Amino acid sequence: MKTNSIDYKSIPGWGIDIDPENEPTYPMKNYTGDDHKRSVYERSEPQPVNIELLKSNERPAFSMVFGESIPPSGLSGMIRRYAFKHSEDRYRHWIPLILADRVNAWEGIVDDLKKGTIPNIFAERGMKSEMKYNAGPFAKKALTTVAVGIALYLLCRKKK
Amino acid sequence: MLAMNYRGPFRVRAEQRPMPEILHPEDAIVRVTRTCICGSDLHLYHGMVPDTRVGSTFGHEFIGIIEEVGPLVTNVKVGDQVLVPFNIACGKCNFCKQGLYGNCHESNTMATAVGGIFGYSHTAGGYNGGQAEYVRVPYANVGPTVIPPDMDPDDAVLLTDVVPTGYQAAEMGGIKEGDTVVVFGAGPIGIMAARCAWFFGAARVIIIDHVDYRLEFAKNYAKCEAYNFKSMADPVLFLKKTTDWFGADVCIDCVGCEAEGNALQTFTGKITLMQAGAATALQWAINSVKKGGIVSVVGVYGPPFNYVPIGNVLNKGITLRANQASVKRLLPKLIDHVQSGRLSPKDLITHRVPLEEIADAYNIFSKKLDECIKTVLIPSTKN
Ligand SMILES: NC(=O)c1ccc[n+]([C@@H]2O[C@H](COP(=O)([O-])OP(=O)(O)OC[C@H]3O[C@@H](n4cnc5c(N)ncnc54)[C@H](O)[C@@H]3O)[C@@H](O)[C@H]2O)c1
Ligand SMILES: [Zn+2]
Ligand SMILES: [Zn+2]
Hints:
Chain A is mainly alpha-helical. Helices cover 44% and strands 0% of the residues of chain A. In chain A, helix 1 runs antiparallel to helix 2 and helix 4 crosses helix 5. The N and C termini of chain A lie far apart (70 Å). The mean pLDDT of chain A is 89. By secondary structure, chain B is α/β, with parallel strands linked by helices. Chain B has two domains: 2-161 and 326-378, Alpha-Beta Complex (Quinone Oxidoreductase, Chain A, domain 1); 164-322, NAD(P)-binding Rossmann-like Domain (Rossmann fold, 3-Layer(aba) Sandwich), CATH 3.40.50.720. Helices cover 27% and strands 23% of the residues of chain B. In chain B, the strands form four sheets. In chain B, strands 3, 4, 5, 8, 9, 16 and 17 form a seven-stranded mixed β-sheet that branches. In chain B, helix 6 (212-222) links the parallel strand 11 (204-209) and strand 12 (225-228). The relative contact order of chain B is 0.16. The mean pLDDT of chain B is 96. At the A-B interface, helix 1, helix 2, helix 3 and helix 4 of A face strand 2, helix 4 and helix 12 of B. Bound molecules: nicotinamide-adenine-dinucleotide and zinc ion (2 copies). Residues 89-90, 92-93, 95-96, 104-106 of chain B line the site of one zinc ion.
């Protein structure tokens, strides 16, 4: 870290207009004036790391506690590892993460099938409630899908 | 134990998963007795939050009973009925020390742009959430707060997020006596913000949405004016006209990244994901506040970036204030507001659903079916 070598307090006018009341984050923040001693605080002991943790490269170390759920795995995991090489400022951090999420949804289906369960996507999307409370629009959507399907089929047949 | 399981955008189910364990000496395990679905969960459910991994359990609004504590937990004990703030906070870092419990520096390894939140993707720390029968609660000396014995559990569960967030939205507005306050969004958060605006001395409170049943509810609950933006050609112009052409003193965004009402914002933000969701409400807030006014933002936006008229913020001299609510900081005051009868949060609850039926509960809340305002999930472990 580069530190200031000049004695800034000797600059003419330094600090002349300091106004501790001018703290726009109040009342969200109970300003203690300690922002410049911020790295000195008593820390909890660190949670043992037994899983693969992807760390933001904008922090020096893991936080003292962290979520233990779902370490990165498979293709989505590879994409996530790539994303975490880049800071939170970069699109190449966030866009790959969104991509990984989409890939992950497919991996989830494969996982289900491997375990011998066919995911009930109809139930997972809450379609029971859809039919109960939104029957009109639901039927319209279903009919449109069927109609478009038939139209496409006829169109393809005609071309042949 | 039974827990919510995210399978991909618009797909969730309730499924058995291993019991949570104490992983850190300051952890507690809480048996969940009530948990809510929040507008914030919809951003996850719709696949808008980066690093939402398949298999995650959502849920950041929950109350329950302490089942087990780590060796360093002293503030709560087994058997205590607690409400758990949605922020995970260490209580020791510089941010926590100053009351910024939503911005703790020791609860999120995966991102510096947001503090740790229960069940809110790996971008918020990778914690499993409370839409489950049991949940791991880190830093149990800081967050969990014993529910006063005479408090209704339905009120308590709304003190974990909705009430503090709505209150802080109004608080950040820096409302002065006599001010006109415009709240965008008549979801639970917006309704609570409108209700709390009166506490700060507002003289006129206006709420804007496009869902009529919510506007009707807001009008009665928050005692405010309510308008449907679908019935206006131009909501900003409408607000200018109704404020003597000057603009509101304070505008509050309680919508966030899934706003409707502006085709370009919707196309770039929701359909093509060229920005972190649609910033329509924030745009309206900035453009309908007076010069030198304050815009308070609690609606959630994703980390990358949004199209907002920042030039107008500059030229109008607007003060923009925003944060995740700092639940712990506000709890003492808000518990008092509830116990004194000034606030009745439980009136917002329209749906009670067994945890097993979570997929339908999400669909109903997401599509605003059956006049839904706030949904509480009840695990079978409630007793
Ligand atoms: N900062 C925090 O600590 C915090 C905490 C909780 C929730 N939130 C956020 O607050 C927001 C609201 O939460 P909620 O639970 O009330 O969600 P909700 O989805 O129930 O409500 C949002 C409302 O906004 C309305 N809306 C859509 N576009 C609009 C527009 N252009 N103008 C006005 N209204 C519009 C919708 O019809 C809906 O009624 C979400 O973004 C949520 O993530 C923030
Ligand atoms: Zn919430
Ligand atoms: Zn902290």
